[in-house]
Design brief:
- This protein is mainly beta.
- It has one domain: TonB-dependent receptor, beta-barrel domain (Maltoporin, Chain A, Beta Barrel).
- The chain is built from 8 helices and 41 strands.
- The strands form 8 sheets. The protein has a 22-stranded antiparallel β-barrel.
- The longest helix is centred in the N-terminal third of the chain and has 11 residues.
- It is globular and about 80 Å long.
Length: 681
């Protein structure tokens, strides 16, 4: 069915006045139930079902990094926050140096891509519910973040392509408290690190606002066993604003703008081929406008990400190569919630456009300029049974895609346009056995749509004559996941357990086809993917409060154990031995969190087991599989509030000065000290 027909159906559905009036009366919730407190085990989540509801009502496995977690953290960006949050189920992997935790996300054996591109990913990254302009989580500073919500497992029914491993939704700061408030802060630490900034927020009548800005810089760090790693510094500046206006008790509109600039980002290269002077500059701009009522949401967003890399590979005497890439993303979304008797129905639609332009100052670009269009309609129905103790969710989605390859500077291109469509479904169940114990189950499809290069490219390297041709008959990569879990939340004890089984099929891979044209060409095909099975466990118990102390003492342990990592790609079997590469079988975090009214502290250990990887160094050049050792790293963090308006914090990362690396030949920093001061007014 054509996309415009779906758009018309959605428009009609969300605009029926009779439903709107009935839901205005029936859909109001007690706003006090939406408050998230330190000891509240019913965190409000958005990404699970696209509407706000208690975590215990969501059939998917969900982690929430709350505003209180962020307030008590010394993390500098979203990647650090997730790594520090104490959930071994989500791995953050660093490959570029620069002293941050890095930006590649690994969730249930699926990952985001190395380049930060927003397509060709198996984990979806969102900002305020819409596509982010990059998947590199280190590009989102912690001071602009209100909370982070992580939905584990297939989520394509509500969010479309790339949500096979799950969804990470970074929610930025919005409404201010009544009156006017603000803060200024300064940070410093090892490797010539410094950061300063401030914020203003407040509300007056129907108007509210939030503004935060920061500047920072980092020098070259040292790594255990290597000494100083040159060219690992960077400079950064960020600003984030949000303005809101409440027309009535049921109507609210908000405008948001974010700007970020990273300069002189060192690209140190692997240790077998260090590069002392390659660098990149990144500029990000994001704008969005949203209109909300109790039962209706509509929004428009626009994001732009410019990345200019300068390399020292000489194209001629005194000539450096400059590689430019720019991503422009925009989209419109709307959804309507209908409630009647024991039913709840979410109906919505969205349109997203991703435009990519790339070129080299000298030589052939890595890929041609292209455009990616997605039109979608989705719905999810919930039925309540047994006095709301049994919740059944069933969802359906339809996506229509248009992929275009565009003329590109310094590249011989045949422009091309390919369209395709894809339906998706899932079902989930929540059964509340008691107020403390519930069981959950899901079966869901998820997919990753072919990129414009994979499906529509037709390009020839003018220097070598090598040709690359897309395959318009490609199917989307697909997964079907079955999971079952149990949550027990009582008093100060928390236990969450999930077992999952994922069949990954239609993996898209490249190969050389000698039958294309007179000389053959590299093209793409679908092959078997993988079988991934595992269990996730989160345990925590606040023994301090439970014992009647005035100090919160909470040990915790979170573990993901992948019981199967079976690689089924025929081309990989000879080299991998049938085991997925770059995927540790065990990812865990454990530690102890302490808190009183005026201070808090935490000792957190992060563990990744051994994993199989290809060795990129000569003479292997990526053709030999080796075993990369696992590691455990301890971080110590704490803060103290001597008076109401003053916060002091300190941290020691890599407390025991371990030598470790997420990626071969890219060692992480040795022991790192940090301190910060914040004044609230």
């Amino acid at each position: 069915m054509k996309p415009f027909i779906f758009a018309c159906l959605i428009f009609i559905a969300v605009s029926v006045p009779a439903f709107a009036e009935s839901l205005a009366a029936n859909g109001t919730e007690d706003k006090t139930k939406k408050e998230t407190k330190v000891d509240n085990l019913e965190e409000v989540v958005v990404t699970g079902t696209r509407i706000e509801e208690p975590k215990k009502n969501v059939p998917a496995s969900v982690q929430v990094i709350t505003g209180e977690d962020i307030k008590n953290s010394t993390a500098t960006n979203a990647a650090d926050l997730i790594s520090e949050a104490g959930d071994g189920n989500v791995s953050i992997r660093n490959f570029k140096g620069g002293g941050s935790s890095g930006g590649i996300v690994q969730l249930r054996g699926f990952t985001t891509n190395v380049s930060g591109r927003v397509i060709n990913n198996d984990v979806l990254v969102l900002v305020d519910g819409h596509l982010a302009s990059t998947t590199d989580l280190s590009q989102f500073p912690s001071e602009i973040i209100e909370r982070i919500e992580i939905v584990k497992g297939p989520a394509s029914v509500l969010y479309g392509s790339s949500a096979m491993g799950g969804v990470i939704n970074i929610i930025t700061k919005k409404k201010g408290e009544p009156g006017s408030h603000g803060s200024i802060f300064g940070e410093g630490g090892s490797w010539d690190y410094w950061k300063s900034g401030g914020s203003l927020n407040g509300s007056e009548g129907s108007f509210d606002y939030y503004l935060t800005a920061s500047r920072s810089a980092l020098g070259a760090y040292k790594a255990k066993g290597y000494g100083k790693i040159d060219n690992t510094g960077e400079d950064e500046a960020n600003i984030s604003t949000r303005f809101g206006y409440k027309f009535s008790d049921n109507q609210y509109v908000s405008f948001g703008y974010r700007h970020g600039k990273e300069s002189n980002i060192g690209l140190p290269g692997p240790r077998y081929a260090p590069d002392p002077d390659d660098y990149a500059n990144i500029t990000k701009d994001d704008f969005d406008i949203a209109y909300n009522t109790e039962t209706f949401r509509a929004n428009y967003y626009f994001s732009e990400n410019k990345d200019i890399a300068h390399t020292s590979l000489k194209a001629g005497p005194g000539t450096d190569v400059e590689y430019f890439q720019e991503r422009k993303i925009q989209g419109i979304g709307s959804q309507k919630t209908f409630s009647f008797s024991d039913y709840r129905l979410i109906v919505g639609g969205q349109w997203d456009e991703i435009d990519f332009e790339g070129w080299k100052s000298v030589g052939t670009p890595y890929e041609p300029s292209n455009s990616f269009y997605n039109y979608a309609a989705f719905s999810e129905l919930r039925r309540e049974f047994l006095d709301k103790r049994l919740l059944l969710n069933v969802g359906l989605r339809y996506d229509y895609f248009e992929n275009e390859i565009l003329p590109t500077k310094n590249m011989s291109i045949t422009p091309r346009r390919v369209t395709f469509e894809h339906p998706t479904g899932r079902a989930g169940l929540v059964y509340k056995l008691t107020d403390a114990l519930e069981v959950k189950g899901n079966v869901g499809e998820a997919y990753r749509a072919p990129s414009p290069v994979e499906i529509a490219s037709d390009q020839t390297d003018p220097n070598t004559g090598a040709r690359r041709v897309g395959n318009p008959d490609l199917d989307p990569e697909k997964s079907i996941t079955y999971d079952v879990g149990m949550d027990y939340l009582k008093g100060f004890f928390k236990c969450e357990f999930t077992a999952f089984h994922t069949d990954f099929t239609n993996k898209i891979t490249s190969y050389f086809n000698s039958s294309i044209g007179p000389a053959g060409a590299t093209t793409y095909k679908n092959v078997n993917g993988a079988l991934i099975q595992g269990v996730e466990t989160n345990l925590a118990y606040n023994i301090g409060i439970a014992s009647g102390l005035d100090t919160s003492i909470e040990p915790f342990v979170n573990v993901t154990y992948l019981t199967s990592l079976a690689d089924k790609d025929p081309a990989d079997l000879a080299t991998t031995g049938g085991t997925l590469l770059n995927t540790p079988k065990i990812a865990a975090s454990y530690g102890l969190k302490l808190m009183q009214e005026k201070w808090d502290a935490g000792l957190i250990a992060k563990y990744l087991s051994d994993e199989k990887v290809t060795d990129p160094a000569p003479p292997s050049n990526g053709k030999v599989v080796v075993n990369k050792s696992g590691f455990t790293v301890f971080d110590l963090k704490g803060s103290y509030r001597p008076i109401k308006n003053l916060e002091l914090s300190a941290s020691v990362e890599n407390l025991f000065d371990r030598a470790y690396a997420y990626t071969l030949y890219f060692p992480m920093p040795s022991r790192t000290y940090g301190a910060a001061v914040k004044w609230l007014f």
